[in-house]
């Protein structure tokens, strides 16, 4: 289980006056992809935060290849690419459902921190989460 | 001091494919108007939250008379209309700077609560804020 | 067919530092409810715009009764309440799935216009849409 | 004139339940930085679109070094780094006003297109804009 698929229907509020989905609207989609991945893995982000962790974004790179449009369904493939120490990287692919064209590819790196935003080694503090994340690479 | 004026320049991300500012984008503007009002009054919302209060929205009514457009500056007039117990009401008027046409009128009611979202009577718990809010009506 | 139900999972990006969904985030949800209603009715908003119409918001009233929270699913019930001339009103009810508590009630009035934002009488210009909207009241 | 400075006050709606500005909220800020740059250069983005051009985003890379917080003013430095053919790159630096700490660095590449989203060589179609952009490197 390294990949998870989510379906997204671009909302009217996501568009801008260029007639396409505004580039900033992709980021909450990717976040939803991450959340769906964690749920499928058996440890939700909700639970992660409930247990005192946070996962702030460290860096983003995103290519916009073709435009997403209002009400044209897209598939989001979220893949956990790396996990080491207090850092995770996801790769996101956004695909137009109608013709399976690739619209966007992104990579987002997150830090796992405590509530004071300090990176934590979950191997020591959260064995369950650590194992589930590691199992994604088997 | 019952009225406070803020200047807003609609951002590209605020627009939708209809070519106008999306109706949801007005709400963060009104919130900014409230914040400017509180700062001018001498007790910022930042300080209010720092002191253990929250101000969730209870209800909103908003009329959209004319469309706001990208990069066309608007003036926002924020007026404290009512303050009683744990409730405040603001009236917001959005005016196009170029021709002073009224674009939108809104009324938003807020509750003053503690961190558990329970309404609090600030007359007892925060005399300074209570006085400053009351002085707005003199 | 006067009511349509949509399921929404509040996203992380919808929250604010109060720990609840920001009040502005409800408006794109309601818009999604309207879109789901139109699709179920057999004439999508996408199609409506494609045929040269727009549906700008005229006014909104919204009560916030209980807070929506991150990742706690909500049901949105969208009801067409009125349709006359170039105006439509929807009523929206937002219900927490877990305990069926009512979180929010809203009423939004829209205008049906041409691309120049002028109200149009669709009885004359778009018989198909006019009939489908009227059939919602039978 | 290769650099332009904008002042931004993070809004309450920009925050998330982590207590910091959500990472997606930076993108509309950068867009505002680009707009301020163009205005200072003497050819606004408004004008650019009015003259039949669009400037969709091609790719983004953004590092989040420290968190922006509600109501803590930030300075945004926008620099035109490259301009060639139908492509422009901006570099954005986000600096906390209080202590001049660098919060974020981003690079965004844009395409200059016609209304059909096709890249255009503005050297041929818009001499005025072409010269103004080139003068930024002198």
Would you give an account of this structure?
The structure is a homotetramer of 138-residue chains. Chain A has four helices and five strands. Chain A is of the alpha+beta class. Chain A has a single domain, classed as Thiol Ester Dehydrase, Chain A, CATH 3.10.129.10. Chain A has a five-stranded antiparallel sheet, covered by helices on one side. In chain A, a hairpin with a 5-residue loop joins strand 4 and strand 5 (102-111). The longest helix of chain A has 16 residues, at 26-41. Chain A is elongated, with a radius of gyration of 16 Å. The mean pLDDT of chain A is 96. Chains in contact: A-B, A-C, A-D, B-C, B-D, C-D. The interface between A and D is medium-sized, with 22 and 22 residues. Strand 2 (57-64) of chain A pairs antiparallel with strand 2 (57-64) of chain D.
User: What's the number of extended β-strand segments of chain A?
Assistant: 5
CATH topology title of chain A: Thiol Ester Dehydrase, Chain A
What is the N-to-C order of secondary-structure elements of chain A (H for helix, E for strand)? EHHEEEEHH
Q: What is the terminal-to-terminal distance of chain A?
A: 8 Å
Overall spatial form of chain A = elongated
Defining key terms:
homotetramer; 138 residues; alpha+beta; Thiol Ester Dehydrase, Chain A; elongated
The gist of it:
Four copies of one chain form a homotetramer. The first copy, chain A, has helices spanning 26-41, 45-50, 122-125, 127-135, and strands at residues 3-8, 57-64, 74-84, 87-96, 102-111.
